[in-house]
């Protein structure tokens, strides 16, 4: 009797063990910022489809507001419960603490090869053997937007060069007086850091030199910022760029108080009643022969198991690769970027969208000549914060452009 | 039999003695989790080399403090905090005292007036600050609109443009936000003063000022002490108003210790120096509270 019982017990435990093995799926976690109200429902739909096709894998999604996102991720990382995948604009702090996988070791070769070459090149961390910590997920391109009605009224064309900008500003100011700010700029802590990309680059400067070394206080950047500050002093810009953000400028553009500004590709959809036209970002034809648009890319990083409770099995890494292949597959990915008003970062998906949409095609065509934020540099976030303070000092008259840019360059040397 | 009785009595007294602690337990647990543990953690971080993600990389002794005191904006931040605390707390208490004296008198609509003073207290500072930011807005704010239409201003004034005017605006908001607490604490103190004192004083021919300085204020001392300590700590720790209205702009010229600490920790990701600043802040408040309590206790003895 005892023997039979013992055998039964062993059998039972064996069956349950097999049962557990079957019922214990690989769990993946993705944390992403709230781009729009579509973000969560659409990604949940994608996850459902993925789980149906991959029965052994379960994906949990957390969509966070931008104001709490970085604090939340720091808390998770601090308690060793980091998500597997996380979307952000920079990965610097996690790279310094060796918390990330080189995505090239995880994702499929097909996917790797599919990214737009300039976007991918911008992600390569040359200091760390060419590792890629943050793979492009969504992109937006910045152009000059102007109020066509106003420009027609004054009788001017969209400016191509810096000289044109000054002419347009002078004529707009003459025509509208103080009622309209000819050029809206954001030199605040929110987006002040974009100014070298908008104006430095289009004067032959920018954050990095040709060898990808920091060149924040280059002569071209100094000239560009001095020119911009000159426009402000002549009263051609919004009255207080140090505290007025791009959002503020967009609102003013929406009520016809700002005549032109550099903004992202979704701007015209926000104000359908205003006749907004797009043009290239003006350049200084004394130093460069064409305009470069600026592209902003948010990327996806994959946390390694030094910040997780359990070690990652090869199966789990494979599951991450499978999920990303699924997420980036053209139809699913195209819908995702369309929902959020972004550009796709892979050629297959980009071609797919551009083939059906002439307006979008212009955007995709500009990606090859675009300049990106130097997000692969680990000092990027420090530079960003420091630059905002420095440009603030310039616009409040507390520092010269040269001194301000020197102080930013000093933190990376 | 006798022994058992004693035993039972002892047991009861032990239980009785433990009884208050049992009731205190929930708040002790809460305080421990949300006050003491973070305080201890901050002290540890202040003396450690901390990475941007919050990992402790080793012991740093005073490195964080040295880095903190090398921050060029720190002197401005400290002066701002001092000016803010002194002005907002003093003006707040003076106005609060006047308001309390008024509300202590009998007049028509007293109940409605009292309630209307209480209502802003029920609104969170976040909401109040956001509304004020809108009121003060240069382009769309109603305040400019009203002032221009009334002819008080010739053209719109950019309240938040210069650091000075922005700071004054925030101090006004700071006073308005702290008024309900001050007024109601002082009002409850006023109501506990017996009417007989005033009647006696009136018979002796005391003036309004005599009554104020010789009856009201001395009798109000304990309420005033509570208000002064609580209000200074509250005002010193103000974060929301600055964070919403200017967030330190332009270039930290309107930053205060709390907002600057937040910026250091979460924008600059310098968690070590930010913890050091929190610790300095904690010590300032602790010293102030101890000094004040000692003065108060000495007076009472």
Helical proportion of chain B, percent range:
over 70%
Question: Strand share of the residues of chain A?
Answer: 15-25%
Backbone structural class of chain A: alpha/beta
- Residue stretches of chain A low in confidence (pLDDT < 50, at least 5 long) are 17-21
Radius of gyration of chain A, Cα only, in angstroms?
A: 25 Å
Q: Give start-end ranges of low-pLDDT stretches of chain B.
A: none
Number of beta-strand segments of chain A? 11
Instruction: Supply Rg of chain B.
Output: 25 Å
Beta-strand content of chain B: under 5%
Distance between the termini of chain A: 81 Å
Tally of contiguous helical segments of chain A: 18
Q: What characteristic shape of chain B results from the CA principal axes?
A: flat
Number of helices of chain B: 13
Average pLDDT metric of chain A: 90
Please report the two chains with the greatest interface, counting residues with C-beta closer than 8 angstroms to the partner's C-beta.
A-B, 29 and 21 residues
Overall strand count of chain B: 2
The main sheet of chain A comes to: 9 strands, mixed
Average pLDDT value of chain B? 88
**Sheet with the most strands, sense and barrel status of chain B:** 2 strands, antiparallel
Class by alpha and beta content of chain B: mainly alpha
Multimeric organization: heterodimer
Overview of this structure, please?
The complex is a heterodimer of chains A (413) and B (301). By secondary structure, chain A is α/β, with parallel strands linked by helices. Chain A contains 18 helices and 11 strands. In chain A, strands 1, 2, 3, 6, 7, 8, 9, 10 and 11 form a 9-stranded mixed β-sheet that branches. A two-stranded antiparallel sheet of chain A has the order 4-5. In chain A, α14 crosses α15 (347-356). Chain A is globular. In chain B, a hairpin with a 5-residue loop joins β1 and β2 (56-59). The mean pLDDT of chain B is 88. Chain B has helices at residues 2-46, 63-69, 74-104, 110-122, 125-136, 142-149, 163-191, 195-203, 208-219, 221-236, 240-245, 257-267, 271-300, and strands at residues 48-50, 56-59. With 301 residues, chain B is an all-alpha fold. At the A-B interface, α3, α4 and α17 of A face loops of B.
């Amino acid at each position: 009797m005892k023997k039979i019982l013992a055998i039964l017990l062993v059998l039972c435990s064996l069956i349950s063990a097999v049962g557990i093995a079957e019922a214990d799926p690989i769990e993946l976690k993705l944390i992403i910022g709230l781009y729009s109200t579509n973000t969560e429902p659409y990604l949940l739909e994608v996850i459902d489809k993925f789980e149906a096709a991959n029965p052994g894998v379960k994906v949990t999604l957390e969509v966070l507001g931008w104001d709490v996102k970085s604090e939340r991720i720091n808390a998770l990382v601090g308690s060793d419960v980091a998500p597997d995948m996380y979307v952000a604009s920079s990965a610097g702090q996690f790279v310094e603490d060796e918390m990330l996988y080189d995505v090239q070791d995880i994702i499929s070769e097909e996917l790797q090869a599919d990214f737009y070459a300039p976007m991918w090149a911008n992600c390569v961390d040359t200091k760390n053997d060419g590792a890629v910590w943050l793979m492009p997920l969504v992109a937006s391109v910045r152009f000059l937007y102007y109020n066509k009605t106003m420009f027609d009224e004054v009788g001017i064309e969209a400016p191509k060069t810096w000289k044109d900008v000054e002419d347009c500003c002078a004529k707009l100011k003459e025509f509208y007086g103080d009622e309209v700010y000819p050029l809206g700029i954001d030199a605040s802590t929110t987006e002040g850091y974009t100014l070298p990309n908008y104006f430095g680059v289009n004067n032959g400067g920018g954050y990095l030199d040709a060898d990808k070394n920091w060149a924040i206080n280059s002569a071209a950047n100094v000239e560009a910022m001095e020119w911009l500050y000159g426009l402000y002093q002549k009263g051609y810009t919004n009255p207080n760029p140090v505290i007025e953000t791009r959002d503020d400028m967009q609102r003013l553009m929406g009520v016809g108080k700002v005549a032109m500004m550099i903004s992202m590709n979704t701007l015209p959809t926000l104000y359908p009643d205003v006749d907004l036209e797009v043009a290239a970002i003006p350049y200084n034809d004394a130093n460069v022969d064409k305009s470069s648009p600026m592209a902003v890319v948010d990327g996806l990083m994959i946390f390694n198991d030094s910040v997780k409770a359990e070690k990652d099995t090869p199966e789990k890494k494979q599951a991450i690769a499978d999920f990303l292949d699924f997420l980036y597959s053209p139809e699913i990915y195209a819908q995702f970027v369309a929902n959020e008003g972004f550009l796709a970062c892979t050629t297959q998906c980009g071609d797919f969208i551009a083939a059906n949409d002439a307006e979008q095609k212009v955007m995709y065509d500009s990606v090859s000549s675009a300049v990106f934020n130097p997000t692969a540099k680990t000092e990027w976030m420090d530079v960003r914060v420091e630059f905002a303070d420095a440009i603030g000092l310039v616009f409040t008259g507390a520092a010269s452009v040269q001194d301000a840019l020197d102080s930013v360059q000093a933190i990376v040397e | 039999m006798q022994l058992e009785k004693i035993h039972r009595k002892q047991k009861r007294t032990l239980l009785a003695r433990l009884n208050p602690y049992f009731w205190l337990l929930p708040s002790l647990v809460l305080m421990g989790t949300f006050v003491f543990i973070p305080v201890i953690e901050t002290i540890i971080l202040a003396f450690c080399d901390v990475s941007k993600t919050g990992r402790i990389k080793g012991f740093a002794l005073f490195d964080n403090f040295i880095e903190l005191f090398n921050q060029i904006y720190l002197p401005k931040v400290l002066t701002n905090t001092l000016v803010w605390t002194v002005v907002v707390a003093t003006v707040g208490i003076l106005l609060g005292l006047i308001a309390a004296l008024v509300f202590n008198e009998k007049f028509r609509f007293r109940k409605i007036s009292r309630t209307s003073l209480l209502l802003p207290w029920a609104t969170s500072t976040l909401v109040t600050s956001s509304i004020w930011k809108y009121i003060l807005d240069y382009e769309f704010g109603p305040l400019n609109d009203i002032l221009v239409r009334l002819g008080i201003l010739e053209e719109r004034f950019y309240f938040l443009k210069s650091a000075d005017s922005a700071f004054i605006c925030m101090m006004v908001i700071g006073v308005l936000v702290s008024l309900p607490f001050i007024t109601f604490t002082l009002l409850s103190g006023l109501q506990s003063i017996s009417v007989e004192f005033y009647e006696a004083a009136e018979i002796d021919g005391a003036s309004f000022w005599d009554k104020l300085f010789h009856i009201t204020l001395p009798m109000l001392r304990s309420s005033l002490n509570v208000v002064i300590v609580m209000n200074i700590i509250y005002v010193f720790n103000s974060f929301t108003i600055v964070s919403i209205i200017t967030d330190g702009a332009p270039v930290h010229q309107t930053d205060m210790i709390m907002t600057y600490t937040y910026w250091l920790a979460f924008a600059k990701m310098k968690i070590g120096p930010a913890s050091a600043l929190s610790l300095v802040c904690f010590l300032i408040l602790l010293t102030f509270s101890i000094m004040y309590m000692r003065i108060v206790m000495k007076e009472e003895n």
